C-alpha cells in the first residue's frame, strides 16, 4: 500500500511537529509513508470563503500531487472534509472533465488520521505513552462533515499514562471557522472564550484535537488567559512514547 | 402601532458586536436555547426508540421537495380547490402587491383594525407597517408577538420572537403600553408568568370580540383539498381564524404540499423540532367558507416575494423546504451569542443567513446589499444546523455556495484587499516551489503580524510561535527523518 502524507499548509508552515509525529507514528506501525513534495493546500480557505475560481488551480495541484497513492493521510479533519466533500464542487464548476475524474479518483482515498488508524490499519492501541491529564475537543468538521465519531477517543483511551477528562459541551464549535475568525472576530472570540472556560473547568493540562487550526484559535485564547493549559495535536500524543 | 423595522440595519459583524456586549442577552439566550435543545433531543431519542428519526426526516424532506419540483401544478391545484371551496385567491409578486391586496380588503369592509395570527410571512412583507400607513391598526395576538409589538421592538427568533426579553422587562412593557392601545394592564401586575399571561388574555379578548377582519399566514397549504393549516401553542390564532367575519391568509408559495397525507411526517417533525413537544396544542385547518360557521369571506394571497428566484437556485432551492421550526437557531453557536437582531431580518439564525440572500439576491447596492452579503459569512460552518434540520436542508453547503455568489457578484471593478489576497494565495498554493519560498518568511510574517496588526486576530488571541523550519524543509534536510 502506497501511503502519502498530506501535511496541510498550516501544519507545513506553523506546526511541522505534527507532520513529524504522523511520520514517526505511521513508521512505528509499519507504514512507509511518503511525502509528495509538490503538495501545497487542500484549497479549503478559498472554498469556504467563496473564492471558487481561485480554488481550481489549488485542487488541480492537489490531485496531481496525490495521484497514484492508495491512501492519503492527513492530520486535519477539516482538510480531509474539504477534499472528500468540496473538491467535487470546485471541479464541477471548472468544467474540466479531466479534473472532475481525477477528483473522483482521489477524494475517497483521503483519510483523517484517526480514520486511517482505526479503519484502514485496524489499530486503536498505537503503543503510545503520555502521562498527562487530557481533554478532547472534537472539531466540527471531523465530527459532522466526516463523522469520525469516537475513533479519536478510542485511540486516546489506549494511550498509557493518559487520563482523559470529559469536556462539557464538547460538540459545540470553538468559533474558529477559517476566515470566520477574522470576518466575525468578536463572535468567534465569544465562542472560543466559552470553550476555553469549559476547558479550564476540566482541570486538564492538555487540550487535544485533530485540527491545528482550531487549536491555534483556542491556544491563542488560552495563552492570553494564562490558563496553564497547552494545546497538542492528537498525532503528537499518539506518537509519544516512553 | 409600528413595531420598528429591520431596514437600514448594519452588516452582521457590526450588529453582532453590539449584541455581544449585552451580557444579559447572552445569558437569556444561552438559557432558553439550552433548555429547548435538551427537550428536542429527548423527543428525538424517544422517536428513535420505536422507529427512526432519520426516516421521518427523509419523509418530511420528501413531501416538501416533491411539491417544490412540481410547484406550478400544485399551485394551480391549490387555487382551484380553494376557489371551489368558496375562497377568493389572489396572487402577489412582491410585498407591495400583497400588502395592497390586504389593505384593500380591509378597506372594502370599512375597518380600521385587524387581528393577526402569528405569521412570519406577514412580517417578511412588513404588513403591519403598510396597514398602519393606510390608517389600519394590525393587532398581534400571539403572546410573544404582542410583547414585541407593545415594546416597539423587533422579533429575534422565529418561534419565540421575544426570546431576548425576560419577564421583568415584559411586566414593564405591559404596564406602560397596554393602556395606550386598549385594555390596560392591572396596576398590581407582577412578573409572574401566569399573571402576565392573564393580563395579555384580558387585553386581547376585547380585540378578538371586536374584530371584523382576521389576518393569518399558514404553515401548510394542501393542494388536493384546498386546506390551509396553522400550528400554534396558545389558541389565540384559532380565535382570529374563527371569530371575525372576514379572513385573509397570506401564504408563501413554498407552503404548498400535495395531499392531506403529506401532513403526517410534517406534523410529527414540526412540534418536536420547534418547541420540543410531541404535539402542538392547537392545529387549525380551514378550507374556504363554511356557511354559518367561521368567517363568511375568505381570501388567500399567494405570495412570491423572491421565492421563484430561490427556486431557480440549484443549491439554494432546498431552503424552500423550511418549515420554520427554528431548530437551527436553537443549536447555532453564532445565534446563541448574538441573538436574532444581528441578522437584520425576521428570519434570523442559520436559516435566515441563507433565506434572506436567496429571497433578496446577493450583490445588491448600498448598505442594504452589504447587509445581505454579510449573512452567508455569519457562520463558522460547524454544521450543527444541518444535523438538526427536520427537512434535511444542508445549510452549510448553501452558505458556501452563497459565499461564492457574493464573491462572484463583486468580481470586476476594483478588487477588495481580500480578493487580492486570495488571488495571490491561489498562485502560491498552486505551486509548491512558490509555497516553499514563501514559507522561508513565516517567522518574519508572524513577527510583522504581532508588531503591526492582524489586529482582528491578536487583540484577544496570541499567535503561535514560529517553528525554526517548515515541515517540507525538515523533510528535505533529514530525508524524511531518516538521516
Topology summary:
The complex is a heterodimer of chains A (242) and B (483).
Chain A: E1 3-5, H1 9-13, H2 16-28, H3 44-49, H4 52-66, E2 71-74, H5 77-94, H6 97-106, E3 110-112, H7 113-120, E4 133-136, H8 140-146, H9 151-157, E5 163-165, H10 180-183, H11 185-202, E6 206-209, H12 212-224, E7 230-233, H13 234-239
Helix pairs in contact in A: 4-5, 4-6, 5-6, 5-8, 11-12
Chain B: H1 12-20, H2 23-50, H3 53-69, H4 71-84, E1 88-92, H5 95-108, E2 113-116, H6 120-124, H7 127-133, E3 137-140, H8 143-150, H9 167-181, H10 193-210, E4 213-216, E5 220-222, E6 227-232, H11 236-242, E7 246-252, E8 256-257, H12 263-274, E9 282-286, E10 297-303, H13 307-312, H14 327-331, H15 333-338, H16 349-360, H17 366-374, H18 384-388, H19 395-409, H20 417-429, H21 432-439, H22 442-452, H23 455-458, H24 471-478
Parallel strand pairs in B: 1-10, 2-3, 2-4, 4-7, 5-8, 7-10
Antiparallel strand pairs in B: 5-6, 6-9
Helix pairs in contact in B: 3-12, 9-10, 16-19
Give structural attributes:
heterodimer, A: about 240 residues, alpha/beta, four-stranded parallel β-sheet, three-stranded parallel β-sheet, 7 strands, about 10% strand, globular, B: about 475 residues, six-stranded parallel β-sheet, four-stranded mixed β-sheet, 24 helices, 10 strands
Amino acid at each position: 500500500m502506497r501511503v502519502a502524507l498530506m501535511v496541510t499548509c498550516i501544519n507545513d508552515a506553523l506546526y511541522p511537529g505534527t507532520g513529524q509525529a504522523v511520520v514517526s507514528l505511521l513508521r512505528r506501525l509499519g507504514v512507509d509513508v511518503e511525502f509528495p513534495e509538490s503538495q501545497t493546500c487542500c484549497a479549503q480557505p478559498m472554498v469556504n470563503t467563496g473564492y471558487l475560481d481561485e480554488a481550481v488551480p489549488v485542487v488541480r495541484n492537489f490531485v496531481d500531487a496525490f495521484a497514484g497513492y492508495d491512501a492519503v493521510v492527513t492530520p486535519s479533519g477539516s482538510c480531509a472534509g474539504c477534499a472528500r466533500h468540496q473538491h467535487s464542487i470546485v471541479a464541477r464548476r471548472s468544467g474540466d472533465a479531466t479534473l472532475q475524474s481525477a477528483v473522483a479518483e482521489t477524494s475517497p482515498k483521503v483519510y483523517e488520521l484517526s480514520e486511517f488508524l482505526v479503519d484502514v490499519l485496524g489499530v486503536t492501541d498505537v503503543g503510545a505513552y503520555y502521562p498527562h491529564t487530557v481533554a478532547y475537543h472534537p472539531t466540527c468538521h471531523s465530527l459532522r462533515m466526516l463523522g469520525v465519531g469516537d475513533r479519536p477517543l478510542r485511540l486516546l483511551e489506549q494511550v498509557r499514562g493518559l487520563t482523559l477528562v470529559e469536556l462539557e459541551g464538547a460538540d459545540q464549535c470553538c468559533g474558529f471557522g477559517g476566515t470566520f475568525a477574522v470576518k466575525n472576530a468578536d463572535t468567534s472570540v465569544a465562542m472560543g472564550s466559552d470553550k476555553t472556560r469549559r476547558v479550564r473547568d476540566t482541570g486538564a493540562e492538555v487540550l487535544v484535537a485533530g485540527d491545528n487550526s482550531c487549536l491555534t484559535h483556542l491556544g491563542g485564547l488560552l495563552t492570553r488567559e494564562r490558563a496553564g493549559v497547552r494545546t497538542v495535536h492528537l498525532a503528537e500524543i499518539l506518537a509519544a512514547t516512553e | 402601532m409600528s413595531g420598528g423595522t429591520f431596514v437600514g440595519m448594519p452588516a452582521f459583524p457590526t450588529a453582532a458586536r453590539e449584541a455581544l456586549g449585552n451580557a444579559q442577552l447572552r445569558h437569556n439566550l444561552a438559557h432558553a436555547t439550552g433548555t429547548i435543545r435538551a427537550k428536542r433531543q429527548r423527543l428525538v431519542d424517544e422517536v428513535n426508540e420505536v422507529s427512526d428519526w432519520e426516516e421521518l426526516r427523509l419523509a418530511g424532506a420528501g413531501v416538501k421537495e416533491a411539491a417544490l419540483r412540481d410547484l406550478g401544478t400544485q399551485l394551480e391545484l391549490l387555487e382551484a380547490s380553494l376557489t371551489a371551496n368558496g375562497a377568493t385567491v389572489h396572487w402577489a409578486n412582491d410585498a407591495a402587491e400583497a400588502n395592497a391586496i390586504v389593505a384593500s380588503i380591509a378597506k372594502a369592509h370599512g375597518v380600521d383594525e385587524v387581528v393577526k395570527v402569528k405569521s412570519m410571512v406577514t412580517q417578511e412583507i412588513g404588513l403591519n407597517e403598510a396597514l398602519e400607513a393606510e390608517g389600519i391598526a394590525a393587532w398581534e395576538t400571539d403572546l410573544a408577538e404582542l410583547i414585541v409589538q407593545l415594546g416597539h421592538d423587533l422579533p429575534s427568533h422565529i418561534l419565540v420572537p421575544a426570546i431576548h426579553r425576560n419577564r421583568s422587562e415584559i411586566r414593564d412593557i405591559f404596564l406602560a403600553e397596554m393602556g395606550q392601545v386598549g385594555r390596560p394592564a392591572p396596576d398590581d401586575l407582577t412578573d409572574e408568568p401566569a399573571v402576565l399571561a392573564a393580563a395579555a388574555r384580558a387585553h386581547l379578548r376585547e380585540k378578538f370580540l371586536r374584530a371584523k377582519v382576521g389576518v393569518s399566514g399558514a404553515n401548510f397549504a394542501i393542494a388536493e383539498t384546498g386546506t390551509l393549516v396553522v400550528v400554534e401553542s396558545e389558541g389565540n390564532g384559532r380565535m382570529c381564524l374563527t371569530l371575525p367575519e372576514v379572513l385573509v391568509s397570506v401564504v408563501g408559495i413554498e407552503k404548498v404540499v400535495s395531499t392531506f397525507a403529506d401532513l403526517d411526517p410534517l406534523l410529527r417533525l414540526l412540534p418536536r423540532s420547534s418547541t420540543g413537544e410531541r404535539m402542538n396544542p392547537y392545529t387549525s385547518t380551514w378550507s374556504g367558507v363554511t356557511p354559518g360557521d367561521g368567517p363568511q369571506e375568505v381570501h388567500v394571497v399567494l405570495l412570491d416575494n423572491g421565492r421563484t428566484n430561490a427556486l431557480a437556485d440549484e443549491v439554494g432551492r432546498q431552503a424552500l423546504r423550511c418549515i420554520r421550526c427554528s431548530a437551527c437557531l436553537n443549536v447555532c453557536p453564532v445565534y446563541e451569542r448574538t441573538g436574532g437582531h444581528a441578522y437584520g431580518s425576521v428570519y434570523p439564525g442559520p436559516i435566515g443567513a441563507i433565506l434572506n440572500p436567496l429571497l433578496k439576491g446577493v450583490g445588491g447596492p448600498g448598505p442594504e446589499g452589504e447587509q445581505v452579503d454579510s449573512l452567508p459569512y455569519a457562520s463558522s460552518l460547524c454544521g450543527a444546523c444541518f444535523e438538526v434540520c427536520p427537512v434535511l436542508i444542508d445549510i452549510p453547503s448553501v452558505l458556501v455556495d452563497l459565499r461564492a455568489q457574493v464573491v462572484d457578484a463583486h468580481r470586476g471593478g476594483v478588487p477588495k484587499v481580500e480578493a487580492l489576497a486570495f488571488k495571490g494565495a491561489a498562485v502560491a498554493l498552486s505551486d509548491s516551489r512558490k509555497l516553499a519560498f514563501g514559507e522561508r518568511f513565516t517567522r518574519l510574517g508572524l513577527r510583522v503580524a504581532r508588531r503591526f496588526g492582524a489586529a482582528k486576530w491578536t487583540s484577544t488571541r496570541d499567535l503561535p510561535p514560529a517553528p525554526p523550519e517548515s515541515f517540507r524543509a525538515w523533510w528535505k534536510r533529514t530525508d524524511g527523518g531518516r538521516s
